[in-house]
Amino acid sequence: MRVAIPVFPRFTSLDIIGPYQVLVNLPDVEVVLVAESTGIVTDDRGLIKLSVDATFDDVDHADVLVVPGGPGSRVHGDMPEMLAWIQHIHASTTWTTSVCTGSLLLGAAGLLDGLTATTHFSAVRELQAWGATYVPDRVVTQGKIITAAGVSSGIDMALTLAALLTDQVTAEAIQLLIEYDPQPPFAGGSVASASEGALAKVRARLGSGWEPYGVT
Q1: How far is 87 from 95, CA to CA, in rounded Å?
Q2: Backbone angles phi, psi at 74, to 5 degrees
Q3: Quick check: helix, strand or coil at residue 134?
Q4: 56-89, pLDDT tens digit by residue?
């Protein structure tokens, strides 16, 4: 089983590493990182560097597609090769998935029009511009497309996918192997549960008059 993960400059590292850590534990799986050209690709902090050995021309099919997000995913207009590759690979997949703002790449590739989907809370309006209906769930399945919300939810998505590809017990075993048992010290990991103080800091961080979708 081949899992293909496209990589682009300014990706968010956990969007890739989280699902990878889950899916690499599946039996008989090959995970391949793919980019426009081979070499080193750097994350959105300029610290994590991934070595990519396969180009879009090298990978013409996959059983599973995992599209990560990050600031680089928001400049999809500058990524025609990747969008064309996503469209092509989607035709052969059993499952096409995204993490965080990777959903914007699925949208730009024309795969989300008329579907329900999720994404990072800061990208809701961009997602809807591609014809998708946003829901604030961590994982959303529509046909063979699975979208995940922001960053850490990629692990939830990958465990969901692992169960679909094998069975629940196998997915549970992987969850145990990586000891994924979230016990956050604070409530507030979603817009709905965040404190006013946290929202204020996020507003300052995101700028440009950002206001949380669905919260008044």
Answers
A1: 13
A2: -85, -5
A3: strand
A4: 999 999 999 999 999 999 887 789 999 999 999 9
DSSP-derived 3-state class of residue 3? strand
In one-letter notation, the amino acid at residue 213 is Y
Domain of residue 8: give its range: 2-182
Q: Which residues are known to be catalytic?
A: 100
Cα–Cα nearest to 10, from 73, 78, 56: 73
Provide CB contacts within 8 A for 179, sequence distance 6+: none
Distance in angstroms (rounded) separating the CA atoms of residues 17 and 2: 16
Per the CB < 8 A criterion, the answer to whether 66 and 4 are in contact is yes
Residues 58 and 91 in one domain: yes
CA distance 198 to 42: 29
Q: How far apart are CA 84 and CA 38, in angstroms?
A: 18
Q: Are residues 141 and 210 located together in one domain of the fold?
A: no
Enter the DSSP assignment of 143. T
pTM, whole model, 2 decimals?
0.96
Contact assessment for residue 154 and residue 14, using Cβ atoms and an 8 Å cutoff: yes
Rounded to 5°, angle at Cα 144 from 27 and 9: 75
Two tokens, residue 133: 């209906």
Q: Distance between CA atoms of 36 and 33, rounded to whole angstroms?
A: 11
Q: Based on the domain organization, do 165 and 206 belong to the same domain?
A: no
Residues contacting 28, CB < 8 A, separation 6+: 1
Give the per-residue pLDDT at 216.
Answer: 42
Co-location of 43 and 88 in the same domain: yes
CATH code of 32's domain:
3.40.50.880
